[in-house]
Write a structure and sequence with these properties.
Largest sheet: 3 strands, antiparallel
Shape: globular
Number of strands: 5
Radius of gyration: 19 Å
Strand order of the largest sheet: 1-3-2
Low-confidence stretches: 111-131, 141-148, 236-240
Number of domains: 2
Mean pLDDT: 79
Strand content: 5-15%
Structural class: mainly alpha
Helix content: 40-55%
Length: about 240
């Protein structure tokens, strides 16, 4: 059973929280209430309905939409491992003071997608054969398109960085993730965005959510700050 949790007063004026519908706000507070001591919890729509909306006639399909709404606006990641749905709350320890925390029994949010089976599996439980199959499939797809535009350059770098870190490919959704990349491509240009991706991985800034592209928006300011520190460090060394 989850312990008592703190709701930080700043939540009520948080820009992301204010973007949520009333039901999504209630669901988000429920996620905090039912998270374990490491900020993770079970995220199936049926389970969330039973815990957070026990007397409401809300449908599971609507809860899935609320989850998308929350994930878009707040530091929450919903993910799957072996077909079971979970969630994790970023910056959990900054807002929750927990004495004698118990280890989580919920797996960490590092996943890859096997499109041939149309489900998501965890990297740590995945087989080397499946990982190699995913990598080769992506490589063949890139070669068949023959494209050399900025999106492909960024995607190839992202896949390379992810593979170097985890030994497998990420759960990359082209329509969704390209929308995020397009936003920053127009803002920063391809060269700076490549550097942003490299620092994102090198400094482990995206580790909390398994380097999910939509969460790049949450990590952006921290990445830029890390890039600034690196440049200042180089200048200091250059003065000697």
């Amino acid at each position: 059973m989850a312990r008592k949790r703190m709701i930080d007063p700043s939540l009520w004026t948080d820009e992301g929280f204010l973007e949520l519908s009333d039901k999504a706000k209630l669901l988000y507070i429920g996620l905090i209430s039912f998270a374990d001591d490491e900020g993770r919890g079970r995220g199936s729509a049926k389970g969330l309905k039973a815990n957070i909306f026990p007397s409401n006639d809300i449908k599971c399909d609507e809860i899935e939409k609320l989850k998308d709404e929350i994930e878009t606006n707040l530091n929450v990641l919903f993910y799957e491992v072996k077909g079971k749905k979970y969630y994790t709350l970023h910056k959990w320890k900054e807002y929750q003071a927990i004495n004698h925390p118990k280890p989580s029994c919920i797996p960490i949010p590092v996943t890859v997608r096997d499109s041939s089976r149309n489900d998501t599996v965890s990297i740590q439980d995945d087989s080397p054969q499946l990982i190699n199959k995913l990598i080769n499939k992506k490589k063949q797809s890139n070669e068949s398109t023959g494209k050399n535009d900025d999106f492909v350059v960024l995607e190839n770098e992202y896949f390379k960085l992810f593979k170097d870190k985890y030994g497998a490919e990420p759960d990359y959704k082209y329509s969704r993730d390209r929308g995020v990349l397009k936003k920053y491509l127009e803002k920063d240009g391809v060269d700076k965005l490549l550097e942003i991706l490299r620092v994102w991985f090198a400094e482990d800034i995206g580790e909390w959510h398994g380097f999910s592209i939509p969460k790049l928006q949450n990590d952006y300011n921290k990445i830029i700050a890390a890039m600034g520190k690196k440049k200042n460090a180089k200048k200091r060394w250059g003065d000697f």
